[in-house]
Amino acid sequence: MKVVGLNRMREVEEKLKDKFPDVSFKFYKKAIDIPSEDKEELDILVGHDSNVDEAFLKSCPNLKWLAWFATGVNNLPLQYIKDNNILLTNGRGVQAKQLSEYILAFILDDYKKMPLSYENQRKHIYDSTITGKRLAHNTLLFLGTGAIAQRTAKLAQAFNMKVIGLSKSGQQKDNFDEVYNIFALNDILPQADIVINALPETTETIHLLQKQHFEIMKDDVLFINIGRGSIVKEEIIIEVLREKIIRHAYLDVFEHEPLSSESPLYELDNVTITAHITGNDYNAKYDLLDIFTNNLSSFLTKGELNENIVEADKGY
């Protein structure tokens, strides 16, 4: 059995070799660094690299399992993976720890008017009349009730917020006050003070949000997108913000990435932009490796995987 890492894993490399002495491990800095010989012989690919496309996978004829160290798999050649019966796992749940903290940071940054205080600081203005808002009793609406939403909902409950979720199943989740089927979108959107997109990219979620959805939100709603930028066309979110249909947005993901330096979003004063950084976490690799190690043990003994299995045809 041969495992090839798409990234170097530092001190963890030796731990894996010690734990699985019968497995051959090779680790590289990037996918492009992997020599043809290793690609032809490998059974398992582990890690994350944006250069893993269909052509790359075709150069790995014995690939049985791709252990993807990210939550989103939408940029992978999912049809090829399905057609070739390649097992696929992801990092679902790991990034939720970091993402949930970012979401709360965005909300607190906005509600406590921290950007205004910083701007006053830069202008040498001392304004003690600035008054923030409490989070308590505000309604937080999650589009998607997966690991990110569930972890954030737990934190939001500590602030006495009302948490509503919309999902494909409408199944109740811990720490949510209410969960509805996504078909209730038009009925639930007007209730929310904060709307957060945490949906994965699938054929059903691409451009799910249209201009009319923002028009039925509260005028002073805060919109946060840490899911996928494809939830709304870029020209529509620009139009919505430019026309001030909603009060403010925090955007970490965009329909087209990297966001062009010419994007009108940079010129708008009612949007805060982060460069798809909310999942970045120095400690995440240890959690990801725990998942990989558990799955590898099962794969070697039973030929099956235990957790974070992704159905390629669904994209999650």
Automatic annotation (TrEMBL):
Gene3D superfamilies: NAD(P)-binding Rossmann-like Domain
Keywords, comma-separated and alphabetical: NAD, Oxidoreductase
Pfam families: 2-Hacid_dh (PF00389), 2-Hacid_dh_C (PF02826)
D-isomer specific 2-hydroxyacid dehydrogenase catalytic domain sequence ranges: 36-306
Domain (D-isomer specific 2-hydroxyacid dehydrogenase NAD-binding): residue spans on this chain: 105-277
GO molecular function, one term: oxidoreductase activity, acting on the CH-OH group of donors, NAD or NADP as acceptor
Family from the record: Belongs to the D-isomer specific 2-hydroxyacid dehydrogenase family.
Protein name: D-isomer specific 2-hydroxyacid dehydrogenase family protein
Organism listed in the record: Staphylococcus simiae CCM 7213 = CCUG 51256
